[in-house]
Amino acid sequence: MRLSKGALLVVVAVLVPIVVELRTALSWFGITVSVLETVAVGLAAVVALLAWAVWPQEDETVMDTHRSD
Description:
By secondary structure, this protein is an all-alpha fold. It is 74% helix and 0% strand. The longest helix has 24 residues, at 5-28.
């Protein structure tokens, strides 16, 4: 896992207000986003973050064997 569970919780908690404020910022430019669309974008961001976080990292020793110096 790329992030600890605590760090992942903090990132998701910070992501929520960012998504809400993005909706507010878009309304300044006349772009209306419904609550359902906001929830969909937020869930997509959380799922993408979780997928990245649980994706196994490539081991450095494996990377060294693939290098052609």
